[in-house]
Every structure is written in C-alpha cells, then in structure tokens.
Amino acid sequence: MCVLDKKQAAHVGVLLMVLLMAACGRKPMLEVAFALPEAAEQQRVEFLAFYISNPYFILKDGQKLPAVLDDTKLWQSTTVALIKLHCLSENCGRQLVLKPPRTKAHNIQGVGFDIGVPFEQNHSNPLLAPAPLNDDAMYWVWQQGHKFLRLDLSNTASQGGVVFHIGSVGCAASSVMRAPSSECTQPNILALEFPVFDVNENKLEFQLASFGSPAVNEVLHCTGDYAGKLGCAALFSQLGMSLSEGRCDPVCNAGYLFSVVQRGIND
C-alpha cells in the first residue's frame, strides 16, 4: 500500500508527486488558478477578493458536472472558497482547488462557478461562521450577509478610485442584526462560465481594465444601494446582470471580470 505523509510530500517535486499519487491510485487535485494583472499607471489595488461557490466542470458533450471543493485548504470549505488576489501570504487562496471528478480529465472542456455565497450560509450566525466565512473584511451585517466581491482601487496621484462591493440587497428582516427568512429580492450572485478552459494550461486573469481609470479626485462608488448610484448602472449592464432583479439570464458576462490566459512557467 502506498502512503504519503505531509513531510514526504513536501520534499518531492510536483511532477514526482503526481506520479506517486498515480501509482497509489490517487488522482491529483485540479486547480483553477487566478491572477492579478499589473496595475495601470497611477492605479493601485488596495483590496480584491471574492467568494466562489457551486463550481462545476463543463464536459465536451455539453454536460455540467458538479465539482467538489477540497476543504483541506485554509481558504476553502466544502461549499465556499475565498480567493484573495491582493494578498501575497501563502494562507491566502489564489486558486480554486477541486477534487478530481469521476471522469477522464480529457473529457473536461471548461469550468463554471458562482461568485457569491448560498443563501443559507450567507445569512447564518456570523459569530459561529467557519472559515472562510469568518473574514470581517468581506462582511456587511447579518441581514445582508457577505460581500461576494470586493474591489478597492486607488489613484496614486489623486483622491480618485473605485469602490465596487457586490452582495445581496433587498433582504427583509426584523433588524440588521437578524437573518431574512426568505431570499433577498436582489441576490446579486454572479454566475460565470468559461466554456473553453484547460485547468493545466490556463488561468483566469482579473480584468482591472474593465473598471477604467477614474478622473482625478473622482471615486466610482458602487456598493449597497446599487440602483441609487450612478456608477452602478453601467457596471451591472456590462456584467449582464439586471440592476432591479440582481440576476443574470442565464449567466453573466464572464469576460468582463476575467480573461482566460496562458499559465506561465512559474504558475
């Protein structure tokens, strides 16, 4: 019987690790890697993080096969992952780690997932929330739940910037310190699909360019009251999401947030 403990695994190369796992009858995990491009001149990424749920593989025959998150990673549970692209710590997730599916790898053609947190978990007791749902920087209040995506950009030469925080709104509850009993009128969960994506060759690069360069001393502020803020209408339209209903039909414009690029040698 083949056994690999953590100490042994740390001293073998990636290729050898894959070969050993194959010899032991174990398939290696599959990773959907994310990347942050170089910021434009005078643009600085202060914060960029997002929750991912409901991942799936897109097979060559068009079927969608639910994927299972590897909950041994600090940034993942069995249902939700928190990707932090502004953070360089090894404890911050920059890749979605999925258990190998019950199909041959060559049958997989693409991937899909939601940027968001399922309703039940989004409004669970924040004092008891397990990782990765215990991050205060990604939380509003119990009534609204978590920020599904948080992007904070600043202009290093001015007071300008971008503040884009998306999460559920229209959540009816007795107070901000209580959970809603039914789904929010605007869930604002971003359903994304990448029909052609090779987990071994490609990565998803966040499209900073989609958010432009705000004018000097101007802040594009889109958070919370989306319908009441001028900058939100254009963003929601580009994402393919209804500003009034908080849904995409059937999926959002994935290319507005991410581009599929080739992995580098060190990825």
Automatic annotation (TrEMBL):
Residues 41-207 form the Copper-binding protein MbnP-like domain. This is Metallo-mystery pair system four-Cys motif protein. It comes from Saccharophagus degradans. NCBIfam families: MbnP_like_WxW.
